[in-house]
Amino acid sequence: MTSATSRRAAIPDSADILVVGAGPAGSAAAAHAAAGGAATVLLDAAEFPRDKTCGDGLTPRAVSALRTLGMTEYLDTRPRIRGLALHGWGAVQQVPWPASQFGPFGSAVARTEFDDDLRRFALGRGAHMVSGTKAIDAERDSSGTITAVTVQRGAQRTRIRVGQVIVADGVKSSLGKQLGRQWHRDTAYGVAGRSYADSQLSDAEWMGSHLELRDAQGELLPGYGWVFPLGDGTVNVGVGALATAQRPASMALRPVLEHYAQMVTDQWQLTSGPTRITSALLPMGGAVSGVSGRNWMLIGDAAACVNPLNGEGIDYALETGRMAVDLLADSRDHTLTWPALLQREYGGAFAAARRAAGLLTMPQTVPLLGRPGIRSAALMDVVVRVMGNLLTGEDTDLIARAWRSAGSVVSRFETRPPFS
Ligand SMILES: Cc1cc2nc3c(=O)[nH]c(=O)nc-3n(C[C@H](O)[C@H](O)[C@H](O)COP(=O)(O)OP(=O)(O)OC[C@H]3O[C@@H](n4cnc5c(N)ncnc54)[C@H](O)[C@@H]3O)c2cc1C
């Protein structure tokens, strides 16, 4: 279906499953649901293709989730990224992705293209797309079950009667808020900006990541920079910082990003300045409560499923899309089952990662650990594994066991565990 025809698509009266939001989370959920035979409506406020502020990086975890979805052939036509080139304090370490069940490659695709491709894939699986239409309200009966969702397209308002609702409406989650979702900023969250630049090295097989980020005056900043090669003559150049309610990020992203782009110009053979600069906040590590009710679930960014140590969330968006649809088969009331499942899958790793991320917001921590750390290849291997959350329950080596233990110890002392 072309974007012109999807624009004209009629708004249906009812849906077995209504998926609100056609980012990676919503499109993955819609693809899984429609493939299982449910009458699935995928609704988005935007017309596609649309932009999304992002670094465009796909970790091996995201690539693995795309394979599970059935997009192996698609991936064959996209960049193959072998790992990270970590820079800082005068040193560089090229660290391949660790051997894991997720496979040896990452990728990078501009979100304008990636999200449109993913949503088309969901339509190919049988989902019905309604774009340019915003979900603005949910009607609930006395048991809390959503019976209908009110949507608006231009001046037209109408209701869609629903069986199940999967809310994938991103960071701000306006529908989620109406349903009671609350974001808690006392644990680490991210602020990040991205841009695009032309580069002669757009075909590189390594993602660049600078752990030592400085402003134009040479001051060390509590953040990091990245350059992700998109294989199409351009790279995504961005900067991110971690913050908490006690230590909000004070850096002005735009000048820092412009300075960073200048700093990497020779290294990445940039032939243009940074363009299309945008920024956004990133709730992380499951720092939200109210993620589900009787017949609805929040997934992806709406459920703060973003890695607190590197800000990536496309993998969790794709994974939670699948997990939510799988749960529909077993659970009649998702109020307790969905947060319990999220806890089981991500709770330990997110709890430990957000504690570590909180430490990184302290100005002395990054140089203290970074300066000696970047010189050790073995340590940087561990950093990439842990920061990328490329560990699973099946990994039994020392690092994996230590990280899991850290997760369960930290979880025990959390005043507010993830997703609660
Ligand atoms: C600067 C920056 C860099 C990042 N870099 C990376 C990276 O390199 N790799 C990575 O994995 N992650 C990265 N992330 C995180 C990543 O962008 C998100 O985790 C990911 O987009 C989450 O997908 P989603 O489907 O949950 O939400 P989104 O992609 O935000 O999709 C939500 C969709 O919902 C729609 N919507 C919203 N409200 C409504 C409504 N009421 N009705 C209908 N539709 C609605 C929106 O139009 C949108 O299409 C980055 C984030 C930022 C801010």
Structure overview:
By secondary structure, the protein is of the alpha+beta class. It has a domain at 189-282. The protein has helices spanning 3-8, 24-35, 60-69, 72-76, 111-124, 174-178, 253-263, 314-330, 334-360, 365-373, 377-387, 398-413; strands spanning 14-20, 40-43, 57-58, 83-88, 91-96, 107-108, 128-130, 134-140, 146-153, 156-167, 182-183, 189-198, 206-210, 213-214, 220-221, 223-229, 234-243, 275-282, 288-289, 292-293, 296-298. A hairpin with a 2-residue loop joins strand 4 and strand 5. Helix 2 packs parallel to helix 8 (314-330). The longest helix has 27 residues, at 334-360. It is globular and about 60 Å long. The chain binds flavin-adenine dinucleotide (FAD). Flavin-adenine dinucleotide binds at residues 20-26, 43-46, 52-57, 62, 134-135, 168-170, 174-175, 192-194, 238, 280, 282, 300-302, 306, 311-315, 317.
